[in-house]
Amino acid sequence: MTSVTTGNGRVTRADIEAKFRELKGEVDDTTEKAKPIGLAVVAGAAVLVLGLVYVMGRRKGTKLATVVEIRRV
User: Fold this and answer.
1) SS3 state at 29
2) Distant-in-sequence, close-in-space partners of 3: CB < 8 Å, separation ≥ 6
3) SS3 state of residue 68
4) Contact residues for 6 (Cβ-Cβ < 8 A; gap 6+)
5) Could you say which DSSP state residue 72 is in?
6) Is this structure's pTM higher than 0.70?
7) How many CB atoms lie within 10 A of CB 35?
8) Mean pLDDT score of the chain, rounded to an integer?
9) Distance of CA 12 to the CA centre of its chain
10) What are φ and ψ of residue 6, in 5° steps?
């Protein structure tokens, strides 16, 4: 890590702002690379949750279904 200071050894506001801009650029690059992976994970999780809800709903529906038996006399 390099330190950027003025000639008198003091860190100025401009030095701090320049360092923050540099770090922000690195963070932006990293987030741009991770976006497609994050979207794929979210989509997969959504499909999994929907499938689980569907299966659990079907199971509950068969448990609560009434069977009517009709007999002829």
Assistant:
1) helix
2) 11
3) coil
4) 12, 15
5) -
6) no
7) 10
8) 84
9) 38
10) -80, 180
